[in-house]
Amino acid sequence: MSNKVHLGHTARKRFGQNFLTDGNIINRIVGAIAPDNDHVMVEIGPGLAALTEPVAQSIDNLTVIELDRDLAERLKVHPTLKNKLTIHQGDALKFDFSQLVVPDRKLKVFGNLPYNISTPLMFHLFEFAEHIENMHFMLQKEVVLRLSASPGTKAYGKLTVMAQYYCQVVPVLEVPPGCFTPPPKVDSAVVRLVPYAVKPWPCKDVELLRTVCNTAFNMRRKTLRNNLKPMLSDADFELLGIDPGLRPEDISVQQYVAMANYLFDKR
Ligand code: SAM
């Protein structure tokens, strides 16, 4: 059966459209999201409403951001959803999430994300972290492994450091390709990101942390000394209490923040 006949909509590759069609997985994801009226519930990329319908069932209002004009139009006339949805047709990457904040209610954000924009979208959302209670995202499994990795492992990298700087990261469940129409080429997984209300290792300049991470992980096989040569000398490493002979994946988020703060103070 073609996607069109099956879904009543032709999946658009350029919008990363892989629609969830497995009822069991949908229930488990909605259980993890735990929709409630005490938070502003926000869905990115509602598509054909596989998550939107069951989430909206138990709450009064759901805000959705959908890039595809046709899909946004469909939601506007959806018989059971139209009265509950606040629909923003546009690009979630450019969306100002602070406009959704209301006093004493943080956002709960979720979505089965288009994989081509998932990393920039998470970075965009980290900018609004103080307003967000938690986020549940369907991502490529490989990305979930990177987000939740521990130091000393192959998956640990700059995405890990930046995500774990802002959030507690909890892998929730794995989702095989057969749960989607059309099936994606890779395995997927749902992750929960919980922004820290109080950051355990506050950074004085997050852009500098990003630069340190990019530079440190420039060549994974090289040591911190080699990769960070333009920024930090052996004497600096000694003051920081970090062994410059280690590789970039061998040091903690806290140590990355320490390097960024050290460089900030030296400026
Ligand atoms: N939530 C639906 C589901 O689980 O079946 C659809 C998921 S599909 C992987 C991704 C959805 O995000 C599509 O509806 C797509 O049109 C939408 N989308 C793609 N890029 C977007 C963007 N930049 N901003 C908002 N929505 C986007």
UniProtKB/TrEMBL annotation:
<dbReference type="InterPro" id="IPR020598">
    <property type="entry name" value="rRNA_Ade_methylase_Trfase_N"/>
</dbReference>
<feature type="binding site">
    <location>
        <position position="45"/>
    </location>
    <ligand>
        <name>S-adenosyl-L-methionine</name>
    </ligand>
</feature>
<dbReference type="InterPro" id="IPR001737">
    <property type="entry name" value="KsgA/Erm"/>
</dbReference>
<feature type="binding site">
    <location>
        <position position="91"/>
    </location>
    <ligand>
        <name>S-adenosyl-L-methionine</name>
    </ligand>
</feature>
<feature type="domain" description="Ribosomal RNA adenine methylase transferase N-terminal">
    <location>
        <begin position="25"/>
        <end position="197"/>
    </location>
</feature>
<protein>
    <recommendedName>
        <fullName>Ribosomal RNA small subunit methyltransferase A</fullName>
        <ecNumber>2.1.1.182</ecNumber>
    </recommendedName>
</protein>
<feature type="binding site">
    <location>
        <position position="66"/>
    </location>
    <ligand>
        <name>S-adenosyl-L-methionine</name>
    </ligand>
</feature>
<dbReference type="InterPro" id="IPR023165">
    <property type="entry name" value="rRNA_Ade_diMease-like_C"/>
</dbReference>
<dbReference type="Pfam" id="PF00398">
    <property type="entry name" value="RrnaAD"/>
</dbReference>
<keyword id="KW-0489">Methyltransferase</keyword>
<keyword id="KW-0949">S-adenosyl-L-methionine</keyword>
<dbReference type="InterPro" id="IPR011530">
    <property type="entry name" value="rRNA_adenine_dimethylase"/>
</dbReference>
<feature type="binding site">
    <location>
        <position position="18"/>
    </location>
    <ligand>
        <name>S-adenosyl-L-methionine</name>
    </ligand>
</feature>
<dbReference type="GO" id="GO:0052908">
    <property type="term" value="F:16S rRNA (adenine(1518)-N(6)/adenine(1519)-N(6))-dimethyltransferase activity"/>
</dbReference>
<keyword id="KW-0808">Transferase</keyword>
<comment type="function">
    <text>Specifically dimethylates two adjacent adenosines (A1518 and A1519) in the loop of a conserved hairpin near the 3'-end of 16S rRNA in the 30S particle. May play a critical role in biogenesis of 30S subunits.</text>
</comment>
<keyword id="KW-0963">Cytoplasm</keyword>
<dbReference type="InterPro" id="IPR020596">
    <property type="entry name" value="rRNA_Ade_Mease_Trfase_CS"/>
</dbReference>
<feature type="binding site">
    <location>
        <position position="20"/>
    </location>
    <ligand>
        <name>S-adenosyl-L-methionine</name>
    </ligand>
</feature>
<comment type="similarity">
    <text>Belongs to the class I-like SAM-binding methyltransferase superfamily. rRNA adenine N(6)-methyltransferase family. RsmA subfamily.</text>
</comment>
<keyword id="KW-0698">rRNA processing</keyword>
<keyword id="KW-0694">RNA-binding</keyword>
<feature type="binding site">
    <location>
        <position position="112"/>
    </location>
    <ligand>
        <name>S-adenosyl-L-methionine</name>
    </ligand>
</feature>
<dbReference type="InterPro" id="IPR029063">
    <property type="entry name" value="SAM-dependent_MTases_sf"/>
</dbReference>
